[in-house]
């Protein structure tokens, strides 16, 4: 049998030697196809290997009736419709480590070029202007670099910046005080970072949560004269807001490798002398291109020869016989993870999942991974699945433990998730009620009965007469319909909670008003 592989973006020839060496493969390299031509060409191929140019859309996937694996020679999988690939049973693999170094070096090159106005000076010189006055720069030494997104590349950039004797402050939802100390950086919230940084560099994926993370409001809290870098993904910085911030003088320099639309169509930012740019070259080194091509080629060969891969982004790997028994709990596990993550405004350090009842006699590792997927997807987005969730959690320094007991205190099965953060331990427990679907039955030490779906509000309050009525009245005035409400309390007159299920998400202003009501201690929206 021949395995047909289409490579549709330029890949290092040295990097694809694992493919060239494999028996029974037919490699076709066609790197100049239009989307329409690719759609006409794709059918019949077993594997598609791309970089960031090829858009692997649902339409393309639907035309690829033989496709089994998509290889992304790089990190970001935002050019691949993962949902469609998963839906069609196509494994997506990437090369998460191969270009980390090059991307970090490019970021440093951009910071230094921007700080010393090297591209601008070269441009003038090339136009035969010997101008030594217009290009006075700033030193990096003793300046503060703010790193937003402290994963592989963010950490490598920080290490290099420290070599330039910069102070580094970072924000990442997975960064704990302990890890920050170990890595020799300060840490704080995004606001903390933006407020104190002389240079800001972003290294997050592009997700719903990170789209326009650096916007008008973010620029407003930055120091006057801040310099900003984006070598991660276009769209993390709002380009219109950046334009205005540079124009107003708030931002003294911007260095961009990536853009909201690529290839670039709006060149307005480049009219500004403070802006320097490269056309998405962060990973464009011989070393990185060879390394990502080797990694992805090896996974494609491994899939073809053994059916296994190393860097899966979406592979569901649940043994069939286990799957059948535990499948009904998949959704509940994931929702418990998301529920607790929304509830907790702190970095998870340890996660314990307790399985009580019949589940204690089964291999529940896929459920734990699904719970982690629910937990991590808030910050890592689509790249998390039940295959890579545990790996990603470990990579973030989260210690994950499973515990089992056959005693389940009145429930056939009970799953309790406990998350430890620097602020303490929070927990939620859920079960499947016979014929009535999933329920969250305990939040911390309060007994509840909540369907884990839709929009929920978790309200902490003092157990006093009239509080529940005031909450209902205010939400009514704000046109928020309450579908269900649960109340739990520790002791009469003590701390209490309300769990409300509402028909649509409450506006921020409504939540603020709710939080300001007498006897209310706090309000947390949860969206499942
Ligand atoms: N310019 C290029 O050519 C190039 C090359 C390689 C990678 N990249 C891009 O760089 C980015 C980072 O890559 P990586 O390998 O370091 O990924 P990574 O997954 O190791 O790190 C990303 C980090 O961002 C954090 N994050 C998620 N949401 C956040 C938020 N709201 N605020 C702050 N942090 C948040 C995650 O917790 C994670 O630690 C990706 O977008 C990738 O596609 C670009
Ligand atoms: O393919 C490229 O050159 C860019 C890759 C880079 O953006 C990535 O996310 O790995």
From TrEMBL:
EC number(s) recorded for this UniProt protein: 1.1.1.95
Top EC class for this record: oxidoreductase
Domain ACT, residue spans: 456-528
Keywords associated with the record: Amino-acid biosynthesis, NAD, Oxidoreductase, Serine biosynthesis
BP terms from Gene Ontology: L-serine biosynthetic process
Amino-acid biosynthesis found in the keyword field: yes
Listed GO MF terms: NAD binding; phosphoglycerate dehydrogenase activity
UniProt cross-references to InterPro entries, sorted A to Z: ACT-like_dom_sf (IPR045865), ACT_dom (IPR002912), ASB_dom_sf (IPR029009), D-isomer_2_OHA_DH_cat_dom (IPR006139), D-isomer_DH_CS (IPR029753), D-isomer_DH_CS1 (IPR029752), D-isomer_DH_NAD-bd (IPR006140), NAD(P)-bd_dom_sf (IPR036291)
Catalytic activity: (R)-2-hydroxyglutarate + NAD(+) = 2-oxoglutarate + NADH + H(+); (2R)-3-phosphoglycerate + NAD(+) = 3-phosphooxypyruvate + NADH + H(+)
Residue ranges of coiled coil: none
Pfam family, one: PGDH_inter
Pathway membership: Amino-acid biosynthesis; L-serine biosynthesis; L-serine from 3-phospho-D-glycerate: step 1/3
Isomerase is among the record's keywords: no
Family in the record: Belongs to the D-isomer specific 2-hydroxyacid dehydrogenase family.
Function: Catalyzes the reversible oxidation of 3-phospho-D-glycerate to 3-phosphonooxypyruvate, the first step of the phosphorylated L-serine biosynthesis pathway. Also catalyzes the reversible oxidation of 2-hydroxyglutarate to 2-oxoglutarate.
The name this protein goes by in its record: D-3-phosphoglycerate dehydrogenase
Record organism: Planococcus versutus
Lineage, opening ranks: Bacteria, Bacillati, Bacillota, Bacilli, Bacillales
